[in-house]
């Protein structure tokens, strides 16, 4: 059997906090023969590499990263790191600081110059050991990063005889890296704390024996006991007991939901006052909570347009800074006869000001914080791309059934034509609708079962998207669907039209039933409007949306009755799936970026056509197949939160970029004026990085109302 030509490895890179340094490592790894693809997650320092094992192996990948001064371990590998590996940055920075301090004090006390300069040199060597190593690795990868800028600046200070400033700058830089690393670790913990919701152990009911085991060891179908106050470790269905369950950690719902036999529960939720026995519906690795965590983590690797732009800009920016620093030295001295020493120093200051770390880190920290805050509120967003799209939305189209209504229609009337038995009509319709997946079909089957009707088997069932379904029942070809279907199959009659016209004056949805080549009756269903819908749609408008409309396949009369109670700007009824897509495109042409809100299953074409597809009421697994966003709590109130959060995230992102560039511009002008010093430039760069991290993390405090 031939060896596989593609393998994948996941590496944890230790002590890596600077995105600019990260890019140098990624460039070096990408340049290795046999590397096919890679992705990096900043907030948990994981690099996933797909490679050809015939050309390169995992040890070569690790050796390449080690060249930048960073130890790596394989994901899942338990490796005890030595004290030196864990603390060398602290030890070297501390020793560098002590050497600089000792040299400064001895210099003021009149110690020999040789001794003082030797101590300054020791401080530079100790503080710059890792920086020089990273510089060499970056240059071999043909990339100029912040380590290159720092090395050039310190080398220039030594050339000018500024031993004290050179030692102080390298010490401050080492200290800044430690502070930035600490800040990033805090960011990692802040995001992780939102998503670490599953318990370490669950109670597995193995026969009559209870066993405390890790959720990962429990298979689908196993029975789990959940006692008051415990968290659910797996998704499942309640088999025994009744209890209020706090689902806020997963769905963002503010009030506990009473769960009894047959109800679904999510991993990460908290049990209330009762004991529940649930049957796990899927393993822990496939739970809704695991899906949320996976989305937030994967979003770090899938770069949004803004992040791709900043990364590309940073590559050019660093080279421009070096060229600008050279020009600041060359032009005044060669063209205007200015003192070389003075302008060379100013050029060194510009090099340090130009470190792009704050600029590069501004985007990922902001986007991931926004995605984590959304996930905590039960709003699952497929990465930074979808978050950026949500910030641009100007029009929102809503499906009616299950979105603006409760999605739990009930049969209120069965109208048979020409003396047909209504129960016969209902049982034949239910036989076909058993094979359909929408809520109207479930209501028809449920009504037949409640009436204790024997539902026959249907054969050769064909689902007709946007129209209905047909199948062979008791040797009859039965058609069940909307008015469009009966027009298309020439099943309409004058009597049917009269009944339909009369019934459409009510608030119900009509399902037509025909067999034996003729219409046989109409089933009337009602699906009440969500009580909160008018208020929630006004909130969506207040969140900055210019146009709200309803797109539904239901009949015009029902749609108009529903729309009169809602703050809608438009209505389109009796739409087939293709017509919904066309309506979405019309909204895009007129208003710009458009979102479609539906159930994630029946509205798949319209969700895909919209700039942003939002699915609600179907759970993460189904909804996220077709939508960019899923609302786990089936709560319209989360829509306004989504748009507000997206706009605030993009506003915070723009503010971070402006802050990073603004600080650099101010210090650039100070450097030109001869006011800024090397140590001030290091402080400015460190301060800008800390400010953008703190500003991005503020998004974690966003709450759904």
Low-confidence stretches: none
Please, how many domains? Answer: 5
The total count of helices amounts to: 23
Instruction: Determine the N-to-C terminus distance.
Output: 59 Å
What fraction of the residues are assigned to beta strands by DSSP?
A: 15-25%
Biggest β-sheet: strands ordered side by side in the sheet: 14-26-25-24-15-22-23
Q: Give the biggest sheet.
A: 7 strands, mixed
Task: Provide the structure class.
Answer: alpha+beta
What's the assembly state of these chains? single chain
Q: Which value, in Å, is the CA radius of gyration?
A: 32 Å
Shape: elongated
Average pLDDT confidence is 86
Estimated helix fraction: 40-55%
Q: What's the count of strands?
A: 26
Describe the overall structure.
The protein is built from 23 helices and 26 strands. It is of the alpha+beta class. It has 5 domains: 7-82, Alpha-Beta Plaits (2-Layer Sandwich); 85-192 and 297-366 and 653-701, no CATH class; 202-286, Calcium-transporting ATPase, cytoplasmic transduction domain A, CATH 2.70.150.10; 377-405 and 532-646, 3-Layer(aba) Sandwich (Rossmann fold), CATH 3.40.50; 410-526, Calcium-transporting ATPase, cytoplasmic domain N. The strands form 5 sheets. It has a 7-stranded mixed sheet with strand order 14-26-25-24-15-22-23, sandwiched between helices. Helix 3 packs antiparallel against helix 4 (113-140). The longest helix has 36 residues, at 637-672. The chain is elongated and about 115 Å long.
